[in-house]
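Example 9 (inverse folding). The structure is encoded as follows.
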């Protein structure tokens, strides 16, 4: 049975698109039951609607405080009974209601090699620091900012002419492969989320890990 998921977004939804495309191609055994956003203007909502996926907007400013917003979000997500909650460009920190409702079952994609460069502007932080490689991380969400257990990472080079946007675009190409691959790994039992993250060796795709030189060449 396909893994039932709810996807939380705040923006463009290119990761959402990648998940849906991978599912269509049979590469991600997932059933996207709902797309929920904290922003009405999130372009990914339109994409979800065009695929007949139920959508919901839960705005922080409509609640007395973050705790009430977080509780409403948890209730809205729970209505769809997901086995996994995926933060795909969701730009808010979750509170205790969400974390307690889906313990160890929320994952996030972050545009840096955690634990380096958490929080906003991961690519800009990498450029400023002068690192020669960066990439993306899929991790379990806990109550901190990008601090939960790491599930998977993919690496890209930081090229001499990179600014934050150019590096971010290159990182996103890998996000679009890594995030669906992790979800598929969870769906097929090759990645176990719980008190501890367990990954079967056969989940690893060497092609994904070797993507960085190829991506550098494609840009030349
Ligand atoms: C991604 O780069 C992700 O790492 C970060 O937010 C961005 C979302 O992009 N958390 P999109 O909305 O999926 O296009």
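The amino acid assigned to each position is listed next.
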């Amino acid at each position: 049975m396909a893994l039932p998921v709810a996807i939380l977004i705040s923006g463009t939804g290119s990761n959402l698109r990648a998940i849906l495309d991978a599912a269509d191609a049979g590469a991600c055994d997932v059933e996207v039951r709902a797309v929920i956003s904290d922003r009405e203007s999130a372009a990914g909502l339109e994409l979800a609607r065009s695929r007949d996926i139920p959508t919901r907007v839960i705005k922080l400013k409509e609640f007395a405080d973050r705790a009430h917003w977080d509780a409403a979000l948890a209730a809205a997500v729970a209505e769809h009974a997901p086995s996994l909650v995926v933060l795909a460009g969701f730009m808010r920190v979750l509170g205790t209601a969400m974390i307690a409702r889906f313990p160890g079952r929320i994952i996030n994609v972050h545009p840096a090699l955690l634990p380096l460069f958490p929080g906003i502007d991961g690519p800009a932080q990498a450029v400023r620091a002068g690192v020669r490689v960066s990439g993306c991380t899929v991790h379990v969400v806990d109550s901190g900012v990008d601090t939960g257990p790491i599930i998977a990472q993919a690496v890209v080079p930081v090229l001499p002419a990179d600014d934050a946007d150019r590096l971010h675009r290159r990182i996103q190409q890998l996000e679009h492969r890594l995030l669906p691959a992790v979800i598929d790994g969870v769906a097929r039992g090759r990645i176990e989320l719980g008190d501890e993250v367990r990954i079967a060796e056969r989940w690893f795709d060497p092609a994904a890990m070797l993507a960085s030189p190829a991506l550098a060449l494609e840009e030349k």
